[in-house]
């Protein structure tokens, strides 16, 4: 067993874990944060997307001990029912979910993606490698391609991300 200390959603937490425990299993099974979903458990669906030190990752593909000392944000850390994060509010407003299973991963990936765009990181769909990428539908689709929705709510997900990104830019 290894003590792993993480700052999760602003709270410093230490948990004793087997070295083989994935970050996803640590969050869900040891810390009670079940918003992050276990979909495929192979890094193919994106249901387990979280932010680690501000960057999005698939929590099922990494071991918790590798993140000792890191800052983790899960969907529980974005907003509350009374004070939704702008991305959460946009998903509700644009009906960016159907069954809802993939929604936490979609939202976390979208928040991470908007941060990448703000930093000027290009994607394969970016028109230029220089300057801030334009957040077109093609750009969003490329950047969100690691997050699958079995219900095929993609048009609404793209609309929600577009709206939240515009709101974020307008308030900056």
UniProtKB/TrEMBL annotation:
UniProt keyword list: 2Fe-2S, Iron, Iron-sulfur, Metal-binding, Oxidoreductase
Enzyme superclass (EC): oxidoreductase
InterPro entries, A to Z: 2Fe-2S-bd, 2Fe-2S-bd_dom_sf, 2Fe-2S_ferredoxin-like_sf, 2Fe-2S_ferredoxin-type, 2Fe2S_fd_BS, Aldehyde_Oxdr_Iron-Sulfur, Beta-grasp_dom_sf
Gene3D superfamilies, A to Z: 3.10.20.30, [2Fe-2S]-binding domain
Pfam families reported for this sequence: Fer2 (PF00111), Fer2_2 (PF01799)
Membrane as UniProt keyword: no
GO cellular component terms, A-Z: periplasmic space
GO molecular function annotation: 2 iron, 2 sulfur cluster binding; metal ion binding; oxidoreductase activity, acting on the aldehyde or oxo group of donors
EC numbers on record: 1.2.99.2
Domain spans labelled 2Fe-2S ferredoxin-type: 2-78
Name listed for the protein in its UniProt record: Carbon monoxide dehydrogenase small chain
Protein encoded by which gene: cutS_2
